[in-house]
Amino acid sequence: MKGKDKIVCNVAVIGAGTMGPGIAQVFAQAGCPVKLIDIDKVVLKQARERIKSSINAFKQAGVYGARKAEATLSNISFTANLAAGLKTADFIVEAIGENMELKRTLFKQVEKFAPAGAIIASNTSTFSIDDLAKGSKRAGKYMLTHFVNPPHVIPLIEVARGEKTSDKTYKFTLALLKQAGKRPLILKKMIPGHLINNFNFAILSTALGFMGQGIASIEDIDRALTEALGPRYSIMGPFKTMDLLGLNIIWQSVTSFDPNAHSDPRIKELRKLYQAGKLGMRSGAGFYDYSDKTYFDTLNYYNRRILETYKTAQEK
After folding, report:
1. Which residues are designated catalytic?
2. Sheet harboring 183-186: ordered strands across?
3. For residue 72, which of 29, 97, 121, 251 is within the disulfide window of CB 3.0 to 4.6 Å?
4. Given a cut of 70, is residue 316 above it in pLDDT?
5. C-alpha–C-alpha distance, residues 115 and 147, integer Å
6. In the chain, how many domains are there?
7. Which domain holds residue 58?
8. Which residues pair with 142 in a beta bridge?
9. Quick one: 33 and 127 in the same domain?
10. pTM for this model (two decimals)
């Protein structure tokens, strides 16, 4: 499965619906032979056209040259035969609907047809990898690889190992994903929806609440993110943003909104930093350490990056 300089890996992607075609493209453009599998031949035909269109878009955007575009497409084959699709697979990604019974039934078939050494990864956005591998004699080969839609565009991917996942499986999966241009986000604990979807659901439910209360038009609610919060969060994330604003301000805001917040275990770390006088960028330390630069150097660095984001958006 490993060549001298890079991983040589046969990949099988099961499910050619919403995510499967993009996942297949991810590995194909990294040089892996990929079999995209679906029981519905109509869905497979549509997936082929989607991938062709996507590869052409990448070529037009300058991401691919003509040679790489041709090679990427030629690396993908399509089949409705699960046994044939899994026969030579080293790395398998399940990308079917979010139904535990269907997934477990599929994994029994996968274990029947796939080589003994094949890694079995799930793109599930709901279930834990331990629940999916429950009762399997190959639990050491199971991994969570939750791609972000569109998977062939967004580089971040959520990754988690199960309690029985072997070190070899875990290390190989990370190496393969990195070779394919992915930036793994390691989940230390499994929750339904994982990390990214929970962030997303919180934003969407808040937006729906604002709309329902008539606080602003849907256009202006969208603009609150795209023109105000979005550029900053895309550069800094929530913890650096809190460091920027000042953890004393964050602490005062949290406790003002909720008088019982002092005893809330969710803000234990914030309370510790506040009481230690580590108040963020201005004090030289907060959630992050800024002691290697002056406050103004740090501030100017992030402001410059945010300005570049606005400039790029305006040019479009």
Report:
1. 125, 146, 158, 197
2. 76-79, 34-37, 11-14, 91-94, 119-122, 142-147, 156-161, 183-186
3. 29
4. no
5. 24
6. 2
7. 11-186
8. 120
9. yes
10. 0.89
Cβ proximity of 109 and 85 under 8 Å: no
Report pLDDT digits (tens) over 230-254: 999 999 999 999 999 999 999 998 8
Is residue 123 domain-resident?
Answer: yes
pLDDT at residue 312 tops 60: yes
Which whole-number Å values give the CA distances from 105 to 59, 92, 109, 132, 162, in the listed order?
39, 15, 7, 10, 19
Model confidence band, residue 309 (pLDDT cutoffs 50, 70, 90): confident
